[in-house]
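G.,

No rush on this.
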Amino acid sequence: MTEPTGINRLNRRDFVKAGLLFGTGATALAAGYAAVPDAFARAVYALKRAGGRNDSVLVMIQLAGGNDGLRTVIPMRNSVLHDLRPQLAAASIAKALPMNNDYGLNHNLPRIAKLWDRGKVAVVEGVGYPQPSLSHFESIRVWETGDPSRRQVNGWLGRTISRAYDSYGHPLTGCGCGVSGTPGTLKDVNSTVAVIESQQGFGFVDDELAATVGAVYHKTPGLYGALFDTAVATVHQTVAELKRLPQVKEGDPAPSYSKDAGNQLAAALKLGAQLILAGTGVRLLHVTLDGFDTHQTELAAHDSLMTYLDEAIGGFYDELSKHGRSSNVLIATWSEFGRRPEENSSTGTDHGTAAPLILIGDPVAKGVYGQTPDLKRLDEDGNLKYTVDFRSVYQEILDTHLGVDAKEILGSRFDRIPFLL
């Protein structure tokens, strides 16, 4: 029996081993060029309509598990908070970092507080969606697809790539950093994205795989050969560019991503910064900080997560700013839901609904937007009633930052929240 050659020999395990995993639109590459869906080829090569072709970069940070918004952006003058949270509120309010007369940031967000003082932070209060689900799985799906009806299966950023970006086979237009699977926000059958766990693992590293890639160049015909060649060439070019990144000179302060080597978000954002600085063409990045399902002893756990978030974002922004690349990069946090306003018997909080989102970067118009949900008028489950549809936040990001028609991506128009310049 003749041994397979070319792309038929290059299986999905090889991609994973190389540290690069193509997203849903390119999974068929692992099975052979003949299986590549026509829709994917069309999405890569067809002439796209104008829009989404600027150099703006979006970094979405998922606070997975359900972040407690009332301990992140704290309504310091709301006396009802003390009634609902006799232990959690006292600790939060006493040490909060003041933003204005009404709000304060968690005391473990000092670098984000400094960015607020510099006009680089916006907060959108009361963000949620109609008929909210308290299930992690269901609510994550809603946020990832931008569809509270649960009918949509593709991610809102995946749809953005396939409809608005002409990537021409570029696998790094959308990228999940520090994870092993394609983030749901980036999934779309007509788009291709990359998943990179670390810089060290990114690239074709062993001789056998390199030889196989060489065979692909010669054995894969026509359109699909060009598609694969472009993707592989981009990987090699990116690895080379990462190695040529400007090094910190002796005496220069190095960007501090984290004092704790276990801060996986900091590592992911450092990789994201390297991809941006290397000029790889990345436009949409997704990273994740897990651990926010704080049903028990929330104080210590949530404070630690806030420290991770602060150090990671602070280091990321500082590195981009140092190299003159912060002007077009927007950071946005999201979480599947907030926490219940009333603390439980374990000094934790259970699954909630509405919560604030934080936007950070030079493109931001500083301020607190939206309306804080009324703590005296909770829903029948004792949760906050949302005041801002999360798709209003997506809409502003798409329209103003990415230059993409939000209605085409989200299917409708929503109230505008002008948190961007």
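When you get to it, here's the other one too:
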Amino acid sequence: MPADTVQLLSPSRRNFLKALGMTAAIGLINACTNDGATATTAAGGTGGTGSTAATGGSGAGNFPETPEWSFTFVNHVTTNPFFVPTVYGIEDASAILGTTFQWTGSEIADNAEMVNAMEAAIAAEADGIGVCLVDLEAFNGPTDEALAAGIPVIAYNADTPPGNPNNRLCYVGQDLYGSGFEMGNRIVELVGEGKVALFIATPGQLNIQPRIDGAMDAITESGAAIEATAITTGAALEEELTNVEAWYLGNQDATGMFAVDAGSTQAVGQVVRDQNARDNALVGAGGYDLLPETVELVSEGVLDFTIDQQPYLQGFLPTLYLYLYKLSGGVVTPPETNTGLVFLDSASAQLFLETASRFEGDAAEQAIVEPVG
């Protein structure tokens, strides 16, 4: 296999994870983290099982020699395919910096399991914690406990809203409400009027609820004659598909179907395609994230768009920020970081179909990604 390009990797973006879904994602994340819940190794390699841990014998780059700092990442859906590139980002930053990490939390968005994981990290004297703040209150106490123990805490992927009493040092992820508002504007442009569904896996969860709030506000502020309804789909991919299909079969006069999470977005595309919804009233469909089938459905025009939020950076940057905070004794305060909002359409989706990389989460190999076109 060529060492300097990923364009020839097999399986391709078109096929990778498409049929395997959650099982493949679990395998990839476990490969990155050895057993999915124990500290991984970091320095001097490409990561994954068998890489060599840093010994603290040398500094990264021209930094001074440091202890082998270990950071814990607490996640709400540890085996979800969305987070494969996030884990790769953590692993790659760890390899550069000579740190190790633990990927832990809950597979089913159970706050109690996540809190237990944070408490375990604090008891183990972790050197830093990254956590998805998916609840307004559950993580406030553990965050304060960690900070009091001298353990820096960074939120990634999901954050509490302004004014909430969580004292995490910063947030690394998409401006969730802002991205939802922009999606709402795009819905108005595409649909104009009629019945529109906005699908959400788990209402109230802070990584996706702000998106649907933003979309609803944008639609309302536009004054368009759009009847927008929020529909719960559930956290499991199969459940999401079933619920999206059930709603559409009962509402075939809908002019739009959109979603605010990865699984629901893929489900919307599958239903639009399988039910030939474009032959009926449907004029707009789209959502979030870069699951392989979603990207393919966008490239084929089944979905009008999907929104990229750079999940790789949501792992890489918190690792870097925690390292710099430790190295500087807190002088370098981690900054609030918006990982972006990019609308992929049928043309721009080709880049993701024709390449495979750790940045997308569909290739484990380290390689230079050659530009397309």
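The chain has two domains: 21-174+310-342, 176-308. The longest helix spans residues 176-191.

Enjoy the weekend,
O.
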